[in-house]
Amino acid sequence: MRIRLFKHALKRRFQMKQTVFRWVAVFALILGFCGMVGFGTVQAETTDVSSTEPSQAMEMATATTEPAPTVNDQSAPADVVASETDVATEQPGDNTDEVATAEAQPEAVSEPAAEQDEATVSESPKATASTTHTILHTNDIHGRMIEENGRVIGMAKLKTLKEQQQPDLMVDAGDAFQGLPVSNLSKGEEMAKAMNEVGYDAMAIGNHEFDFGYDQLKKLEGILNFPLLSANVYKDGKLAFLPSTIVNKNGVNYGIIGVTTPETQTKTSPEGIVGVTFADPLETVTREMTKLNGQVDAFVILSHLGIDPSTQQKWRGDYLTQQLSAMTAYQHPIIVIDGHSHTVLEQGQTFGTDVLAQTGTALANVGKITFEKQDGKLSNAKASLINVKDVADLTPNAALKAQLDKANEAYLDATSEVIIPNNTVHFKGERDDVRTQETNLGDAIADAMEAYGQHGFSTPSDFAVTNSGGIRASITPGTVKLSDVITVLPFGNTIAQIKVSGENVLKAFEHSLSAPTQMVDGKTQFTANGGLLQISNGVRVYYDINKAPGQRVNEVQVLNKKTGQYEPLDLTRIYNVATNDFTASGGDGFDMFGGPREEGVSLDKVMADYLKTADLTQYDTTEPQRMIMGQPAKGEDTTTVPPATKPHGQQPTPQPATPGKVVPFPVPQQPAATGNNGAMTGGHAGTMAGSHVTTMPTTAAMSTVATQGTSATMNGYVADRHESGMLPATGGTPAGAVALGYVCVGAGLYVMRRRRAA
């Protein structure tokens, strides 16, 4: 009996043990699957986060850890400039929209806590009304004082526009005085008087401001009733001009800084810059910004630098803007008003909250920048253009128009001689033609120079070359007057002759053809380059545009005037080369020229005399005659101009409706940040979370056309997670839940296995 009871007890104990094992296994399995389901939920939530805008993702990722923003109780009225301390102490997330939202929330009267919230809200400062501010700007006017219907706004109508718009500032980014003969006749003085009448506040110095010489530029500075600015121009080792100025308009302190392209060393007459040097643009601008930093609400950089791809990266306006925008030392908006490259930027280009703007050239457009001011802070800067067509119905200012008409009449009287009574040829001299390829106008000018050189110098010229940058207009069919010729050649250059070795002739043509290339209508073409040489009938240049710069010239042939045959260039021979005094002095980077030279009469006189007697029908073509793609044909008859029967591959670029080329803006790629990855608040960095760039972008990065996307607005951590579609969950760790789930499932399976074994 005892044995039976003992066995029964053991059996009951074993059954209880099995029950325990069963429940432990079930519990473990349930716990494990709960962990797995929890992870799936977290993953789904993080996927939703990754699909939001970067700024929203940043808010979601930090919502449970960031404290509620506090509102500064020292907001200034809209017409009072906030102090530097107020701007610097703004907390992340501060904005007046949040204050307004808090005030608009309904009260919960019955709850004491709600009364406390109401008291808190009532202590917050009320947002002052936002005010809109405007800056009007011009660049590269090049003497266009007189209105031309559909092409040039003119200074009299510009004054009317300014009176209509009532901007805070009216500024210019350089190259205003030189250009059309009506301005050149007075060496820029009539233009300076017109700018005074319009009412400019400041102007940068462009490279062509030196075309009349340094002393004349100083005279123009004295005529102007507003400052002529450049922070990087030195004369005999000392700053030559005022680097910056502060202008207060409508409650905003503007720190205005001028900067001039160092390309002026090769893009003006060498005689005009004797003893003049040009310092690094970025270094000199930041020096001035540091001086002004505690005194201004916004920086306005008048930058005669341009965005031409052929310009050195560190001398470009887009590079300057990018670097300044990345600097955390300047907590105010930066507005860069650019010039020099004659580029039309219809809506400007933004770098964070900073803006780069340019209008093109010839006063076909006026730039307009607007921004908002609220509680002492400036924001929402936008750039746009007012086109010549937009002001067609405006009435020019009567007094200024009368002043300009008088100056124009004096010029026309001096240049009214008829050169060609009935011209039948359209001579192409527009910028996008003459700076990218051979044109018939370039041929005619070079032929005129070679013809003069047969008797005008001590030894006859072998051939002639002239830089395309010196050709500023076309000659259309009809009556051609001296004024038309001067419009084509407005710089007052003289013809010159220099002796050049064959080796340096080859180097000169390689330099002439060294510009970057671009695709236009499916064909490879040079980008606009003022250093492209137009050449006379005495020389032929065969080249390959698809080769690397410096290796594009296949062969150069020079006409032997005794035999009438073109012969290969002799690298050891000294050639007599007719050119203009600008190129002869090494202008446009032709440092293989220079040295002693003979000089003759003005270039416009050389051209006018030639046009009176030459057979102009030889120029009635748009095909290349002298600069030829490919190799010279074997056995080719070189006693005459080779027939142009093959496509050149460099067809003229269609002209825009107004002067100035509209081009896609080459936005520099965002370089990798080297530090300071955090939330940026206020200032030109805006309220973004950003990587403050401190590295210099490479040339390749600057020349790559890219879109600055939203990735630039995220800090490094969130950007990485955003790209992978995952964000860390706040308040828990998904990886821990997964691990616990696997452990529990494993334990449950193990217990069940032991049960079966038992």
From TrEMBL:
GO terms for molecular function: 5'-nucleotidase activity; metal ion binding; nucleotide binding; UDP-sugar diphosphatase activity. SUPFAM superfamilies: 5'-nucleotidase (syn. UDP-sugar hydrolase), C-terminal domain, Metallo-dependent phosphatases. Residues 57-70, 647-657 have a biased composition (Low complexity). Residues 48-134, 630-657 are annotated as: Disordered. It comes from the Bacteria. Residues 121-134 have a biased composition (Polar residues). PROSITE patterns: 5_NUCLEOTIDASE_2 (PS00786). The chain crosses the membrane at residues 734-752. The keyword Cell membrane does not apply. Residues 427-594 form the 5'-Nucleotidase C-terminal domain. Residues 134-343 form the Calcineurin-like phosphoesterase domain. Keywords: Hydrolase, Membrane, Nucleotide-binding, Signal, Transmembrane, Transmembrane helix. GO terms for cellular component: outer membrane-bounded periplasmic space. The keyword Isomerase does not apply. GO terms for biological process: nucleotide catabolic process. Belongs to the 5'-nucleotidase family. This is Multifunctional 2',3'-cyclic-nucleotide 2'-phosphodiesterase/5'-nucleotidase/3'-nucleotidase. It comes from Staphylococcus rostri. The lineage of its organism: Bacteria, Bacillati, Bacillota, Bacilli, Bacillales.
